[in-house]
Amino acid sequence: MIEAIVLIVVKPGNEEKVYQEIIKDPRVKEAYRVYGEYDIIIRIEVPSIEELDRFHDEVLRKIKDIELTETLIASSYRR
Description:
With 79 residues, the protein is α+β, with helices and mostly antiparallel strands. The chain has helices at 15-22, 49-58; strands at 2-10, 28-33, 40-46, 66-73. One of its GO terms (biological process) is regulation of DNA-templated transcription.
């Protein structure tokens, strides 16, 4: 299982709309609206890198109000 954190920048004023769209996906395990450089942070779980690619293509890239994402793949060091 791959766990990733995705940091998201949204067009101003569209944070709630994007948040509601993102949390519909079952791969999203946690989602937070935050202050600072990023607007939304999500934690996703996927079985493979290919599924992570699909999540980016099928979910994040289709939401027009997302301006930028940064994906951090969790390391196994924590185990």
